[in-house]
Structures are given as structure tokens and as C-alpha cells.
Amino acid sequence: xxxxxxxxxxxLRQIQRASIWTTSLIIFVMMLTFLNLIAVSGILVGLIExxxxxxxxxxxxxxxITELDGEDHILETESFIREIEAYxxxxxYSVRFSGSATLEANYKERRNLQNERxxxxxxxxxxxxxQEDTMTGLSDLxxxxxxxxxxxxxxxxxxxxxxxxxxxxxxxxxxxxAGVKPGDTVRLTLGDVSKEFVVKGLVQSKVDEVxxxxxxPEREFRRLFNRLDRNAxxxxxxxxxxxxxxxxxxxxxASGLTQFAKILTFEENLPKFLIDIKNTFNVLGTFIGSIxxxxxxxxxxxxxxxxxxxxxxxxxxxxxxxxxxxxxxxxYVAQAAFYALTGSFLGALLTYGFLVPYFDQNPIQxxxxxxxxxxxxxxxxxxxxxxxxxxxxxxxxxxxxxAKQNTLNAILGRK
Amino acid sequence: xxxxIAQNIHRTFGKEPxxxxxxxxxxxxxxxxxxxxxxGKSGAGKSTFMYQLSVLDTPSSGHLIVDGTDVMxxxxxxxxxxxxxTLGYVFQDYALVPDLSARENVMMxxxxxxxxxxxxxEKADAAIDSVGLEGKYQNLPxxxxxxxxxxxxxxRAIASAPKIIFADEPTANLDSISSKQVIDLLSDLNHTTGQxxxxxxxxxxxxxxxxxxxxxxxxxIVQEENLRPVHS
Lengths: 415, 232
Fold this sequence. Notes:
The complex is a heterodimer. By secondary structure, chain A is of the alpha+beta class. Chain A has helices at residues 2-17, 20-60, 77-85, 129-136, 164-167, 208-211, 218-224, 245-254, 266-269, 272-310, 312-320, 325-361, 377-403, 407-412, and strands at 63-66, 90-105, 118-127, 142-145, 155-159, 185-190, 193-203, 214-217, 234-239, 262-265, 364-366, 369-371.
């Protein structure tokens, strides 16, 4: 305790008397190291979290309801909907019908029947346009033309991956039709049944599920696909408070709704590979960030080493007058702790006070995600602890090396 | 009983064939309250001898008892504690910690000995006052003249009332006025508190305040001059 008190006094005084520019530079280096540690993995993880967020907002919501194993559709959909409408924790929902069909374009201009038809196998979603827009903001994703009007019939929205001009960047991955624009007429064919639609708009999203879908009003869907029982394929729900998802899903299960459909929270519905990628990115980011830690620890080592070396004589004198070696080591470790604490504090301030809100407002535009900076406080704390401990070691080693030298040699400046 | 008993002290540096004998079997006894000055030309071994007596260095061979303790058998850590509790030092170039104020420099050994902050502060201020530096408690070493710094070093050496004070050429970097003040301080200390002082100096004028002057040459004591008896 005595050694700690005197060591802290010595360390504090050394910091106080040091050049303000040198101290600022060291703190700046520590801040950058901390930011590097947080930001690299934060952006990598944020990339996936951004994708997750996009899927949650534009496609799946907070709770996803699908057909039971062995069933084709959600059973007793209308009763089911009446039940979920009674939940005050549910903010909004959208009922979806889905099926596969063939989309054909440019058939009116096709004069030679020997020529290939301009067709693509597509997924068709039957939606209530108003309900879907409230749930996922689908109208905001329209990049050409307009959104579906709930009072109109005979109109279709097409995801851009079905349009050759947009899909060609991916090569031949997606089947697509050429030159389709809003106002053009296209045809959906299911077996022997065909129906013409006027293209109302094209939709583009970070979520492939939207880009690889066509949307028509659910009434027309049921007629086209002969789905007279009104049993839907998917119901997506947005809750008032997403933290209550599990509780709401459990409550639905307790009400017996699981006999009609499978009820999963968004988190449960996440594919395992996405969780694996997120964890891998986190490890990768930490690994890359750890290079920064090595650089910072070497910096601290050099700074403390030079500092201790230049004060070697004073260290010798302190030992000479009876000050324990431990006190001197504590003094230098205290300095290293000060640099690590101040740098990390400023780094955390910058991260949570500026960078996280900034990237939330201005996400990095990746093809499949709006990249945000993910920095959960617990992870940040662990990284701080790692940085802090390594800095303390980097401060201790040079102090130990100098302080263990022969007292008289240190006093006389002998090697 | 003598406070220092040194018998047949040898100190060598390096290894054969480059072995250098700096001390060649030095004997000395110092009585409690005695003021001993060690003189000699450069390279005579006087500072090396003082480092052995002051437990800053370890003799290559011989016997050394300081304040009843066989210091040659102590571990490094025990030697540090022994120096803290028994000895005080005044170095040639003041040897103050530049980051600490005059008061904090003097407080260091006191705090290390376990004094509380307030007690250490009071003792440090009293020691600084006793060397004539009233009011300069907060000054950093860089804000003091050479003579003042050396007086702070003396204050540091005396604050914890050690049994022996070792002074290694304490006037070497000072002008004549400051040198006189420092020597007077040490003499007064010896007279008033009866503290044992061992001082290395080049200047006979400054050695005349001692009880005894030892002359060294080529690693041995060649002459001893008794100036006055030790105060009872």
C-alpha cells in the first residue's frame, strides 16, 4: 500500500511535468488504437447487422409466422389474424400469399414465333398494398414508377433482379426479362392460366427477398392461383417493442396458435450461417484490431523505456535513498495506465458520441447492406480490458528492466 | 561500540587479465557522532570506499559492519531497507527528483518509512526550514540554485534522522559561498544532533570541520589526521 501510494505520486508528478505535446501524442495514439480495435470489428459486424436490420425492416419484421411442417399454408388464417389483432404489443402486420409463376414480357412485339420467348420464372407475392406498406415501407423501395394502389386491379410491382438491365451485373445468375418499364404490359402464367398486368413500378432493396419478388394485390393472387380458402403463406408482424418478441411469441404459443402455424421470432428465424458469419467477422475484426494493440504496446514500451532510461540516474538515486524498486515500477505502470485510460475514454467518447450515431444516420452503402458501426458496450468493455492490460505490461517491462539494474551503476551512469 | 567497522575491504572491477584493484584492504572504524572526512587525489579510491561504507556497493572481500549489521550478508531488498532506515545521502550533484517539489523530494524517504502524508509534510518542512530554505517548499529543483538544491538534498538526508550521513563531494558543483554554507550545515548537524557523518572531499579547507581526516592513495589509507575529539 505504501509502495502504491508513493509510486502513484511519482507517476502523477511525471505526467504533470511531462511535455503536454508528448502526452497528447501518446494519448492520441492510444485513442486511435482503441478506435481501431472497436471500429474494424464494429464495421465488419455492422455489415451483417445492417443486413439483418434491412431484412427485419423490409421483409420479415419481428415475428414470422409460416405454415406448419407438412402443411401447405397457415391454417385458419382469418381466425389467426383475428387472434393476433387482439395483441396490444403488436404494432402492425402483413399477410402474404406466395407462389411461383412465369413472367413474360415483350410478347406483343414478338412477331416470329421461332424466336425465344422473353420469360422468367418468378416468385409472386400477393399482398394487401396498404398493409404491406405500413409493415415494410414497400412503397419507399419503388425506384421507377409508382406503388400499387389498393383500389386498382391489374397492376404489378417487379423486383429489379427480374429486369435484365439491373440483373446483368450478376451475369446469368437470375432469370430476367428485357427492357420492362412502368406502363409496359407483362403476363403471369401459372399452368394454363395467364393474366396480363400493367407494370406499376420496379422495386429495389438491400434485401434479395424483395428484389426477387413480384407483388400483386392479394385478391388477384388468390384468383390467379386459385387460393379460395384464404389461407396465407406467411404473416409478418412488427411489435411495439422488439425486446418483447420472445414473450409475445410464447404468449401466442400459450394461446394455442401454434396448432395453426409455426411462430418464430426474427432472431430464431435467422439462418445459422448469418450468425456464424457475424461471429467470424467479430473474431476477424478483433484479430485485425490486435495488430493495432501490438503497435500501441510497442509504442508504450518505447516511450516508457526511453523515459525510464533517461531517468536511470534518478531511479538509481531513489533506490539509493531507500525507495523500493517496486515503487519505481508502479510509477511507470501508473503512467501507462493513465495513457491507456485517457486514450480509451476519448476513444469511447468518440465512438458512442459521434461514430455510432453518425453511421446510423449515414450508413456505408454496401450492395447487400447499409453498413452501420456495431459497438455493443459489453464487447467494447472487454476490448478495453485487453488494451489496458497489454498497456500495463508494456509499461511495466521497461520499468522493470531499468529498475532492476545495479543501484550504484545507475547512480554513476555506468553500464 | 563503533558505528562502522570495515576490515580489509577490497574492491575489484572486471576479470583477469583486466582485473582492476580499486580498494586494496582498507580498514576503518567510525565512532557514533564522529565526522570523518576522506580526502585523496582523483582515482585514489575515496568515492569507491564511501560507496562500500554506505551500502551502495558490495565489497569484493573483507568484513563490513554498519550499525551492528553485517551488511555484506544482506539481500538487495534488505540493503534498500537498511539504507532507508539507517543512512542518509548527499550526492555530488544534488540528485533530486526533478518532477518533485522540494517538499516532495524530502518527503520521499519519510513516506517510504511509513509516515503518514501529514506527518511527512511536517517533518519535511521542518527539515527544509533547518537548512535555511523557508518558503521554498513548493519549488521544483529547476527553480532553485545549485546551493539551494544541495541544501534540499541535505534536508532529505536529515529529515528521517538517519544514524549516518554520507556526503560524496557535496561541494563539488557549488560556488565558494554555497560550499561554505553546505559544510557549515553538515558541521552544525554533527555538533547539534551528534549525527555520524562520512564525507568525501577534495578541499582540505572543507575537511577541517571534521574530527578526523583520512588520506587515501592508490586504494589504501596512507595517512590519518585527528583534528579534534568526538563530541560526547
